[in-house]
Amino acid sequence: MVIISLLHDVHTHRTIDVFNPGNxxxxxxxxxxxxxxxxxxxxxQYLKHMFAADTPTKLIKLxxxxxxxxxxxxxxSGGCNNAGAVMQDEYLDAISIIKQKTNLILNVxxxxxxxxxxxxxxxxxxxxxxxxxIGDKRTIHEVYGLDNTPEDFKNSLLSLKRAGIKKIVPHIxxxxxxxxxxxxxxxxxxxxxxxxxxxxx
Length: 201
What we know:
By secondary structure, this protein is an alpha/beta fold. The protein has a single domain, classed as TIM Barrel (Alpha-Beta Barrel), CATH 3.20.20. The protein has helices at 56-68, 92-101, 115-122, 137-142, 150-163, 182-188; strands at residues 2-9, 14-19, 27-29, 51-52, 73-77, 105-109, 128-133, 167-172. The longest helix has 14 residues, at 150-163.
């Protein structure tokens, strides 16, 4: 699973690892191919390559089948709603059941969350939360089509941390607004702000 360790801090003993999930860690979309945003980030293209499970019952059934096929874990993702959220409350009980009845590692891609949603997700005992970090207001508005700010992403990340999620994996989205000059762009468009990384364990 771990392809290479990119960085090891001798003082904190923390390491940044690169993973290649492969067939042993498939992705599941709880919205099928639907994404309310259908934004310039991917236009829903990522969803086409995921298993579809657009009801809690389908998610449970699919994960049970995948568990029998000896996969290591599952990424539970999907399209965003108009508020920038992926994970919906009606799936929380399903996630709890999957954790109780299988040995699957569950990685949930949440999108933006409130404090109460983060606390409810933590109670499912999910193993990992993947969270897209966007530090530029213009990118949020013009690429994602959301009426949010970098502060909203920071608050979601803090809520997940404070809820006691075991492991939070921030996805640093680089070059979304203008893919060509990624390095110079990111220096000026908010992605060098260390505020987002400070809360992580």
